[in-house]
Amino acid sequence: MPKNKRESLIYTLMMCFVMVLWMSIYNVGLHSGEVSWSVLKASWLGMPLAYCCALVLDWFVVSGPAKKVAFRLLPTFASPLKTVMTVSTCMVLPMVFFMSLYGAIEGLSHTQAWNQLLLLWGTNILKNVVMALPFQLLVAGPLVRKVFRRLFPEGTVLA
């Protein structure tokens, strides 16, 4: 886990990239009904805007309140694993909420069926939480933490 603001920013940049890329592929694949090169291409092309949106949401909207909730839920001397799992869960749930809205708006911008926004947003939340939470806890979290600490050993990124 990051130890200061600079580490936190670098970690957030890395984590957002992995999560947005994976969730973009997942959502484009869901909506097209297949996983193909065209799905990968569409996911990659839609990535910059989704990535920027996720970064802004993570850094300015979700992170502070999510960490406050997580640390209220944790006992004083919680294990590092329990801390990581709790903070990750408290971050993923609101990010799914907001990014599912982003996905619904982006998807409806092609069809102009704005009267279906709430329905699509709600179904996106359900579909995305089923993928995002396990992916974050089992794949992205461990992978990004490992790569982050290999690139930036503890104490090398100054506050």
Automatic annotation (TrEMBL):
User: Keyword Transmembrane on this protein?
Assistant: yes
Q: List residues traversing the bilayer.
A: 9-30, 42-62, 83-105, 125-144
Where does the record place a coiled coil? none
Instruction: Provide this UniProt record's keywords sorted from A to Z.
Output: Membrane, Transmembrane, Transmembrane helix
Judging by the UniProt lineage, the source's domain of life is: Bacteria
Write down the InterPro entries for this protein, in alphabetical order: DUF2798
Q: What's this protein's name?
A: Integral membrane protein
Q: Which organism is it from?
A: Enterococcus devriesei
